[in-house]
Amino acid sequence: MRSLLSIFLLTTILSFLLLPTHAQFGIKKGTPISNPNNEATIDPSTGTPQQQEGGGFLSEKDAADMSAIIEEAMKDVETMAMVTKLKEENSDHLSELRQLSPMEVLGGMKEVLDNMKLIEYLFQDKERAVKEMEKEGMIDKAHVKKYRKDPDLLEQDTRRGLYFQFISLAVVGGFIE
To answer: Helix 126-135 crosses helix 102-122 at what angle (to 10 degrees)?
Structure first.
């Protein structure tokens, strides 16, 4: 089942990278993803997540961040249209993914949340981000030239892909109906 989720999410991200889109939905660039205490979860010197107190994989801060994203997503008309379309066009895949345990879904959501936070650090130097993502094999060879020429486009596409992953997992987990 975990591999099904991975395949589904990978396919979804690749479809965003291959198809041009001009919609802006979700969390706008620069919007902080944090709780009211504004605690840092990313070590600014390394860009890595800091250890959570208590050692659990989902801290109160993570839960608050996830809840804030979900609440904002449910207010966003374009996101909710995307959710409706996702449910209509992928109902078979969604029913398979709903067999995942709640811990697996939350684990996936936490991983995407951490990645959403990490891209803030990664894209501080956009040209370097392109080089690093290319080196790690995260950019399809067909799109490398386009992203080298316009690193802002890579950042936008990465943000959209992560947002779509998060929302998709929230739908699978029943957090967005």
So the answer is: 130
**Is the pLDDT score of 90 beyond 60?**
yes
Q: What is the mean pLDDT of the chain?
A: 76
- What are the start-end ranges of the H helices in 41-150? 60-75, 77-89, 91-97, 102-122, 126-135, 144-149
Sign of the CA dihedral running 85, 11, 125, 47 = positive
pLDDT of residue 75: 92
Whether residue 61 contacts residue 35, with contact meaning beta carbons closer than 8 Å, is answered with yes
Within the chain, how many helices (H) and strands (E) appear? Answer: 8, 2
**Using CA atoms, how far apart are residues 45 and 142, in angstroms rounded to an integer?**
32
Taking alpha carbons only, the member of 27, 33, 25 closest to residue 85 is 25
* Whether pLDDT at 13 is above 90: no
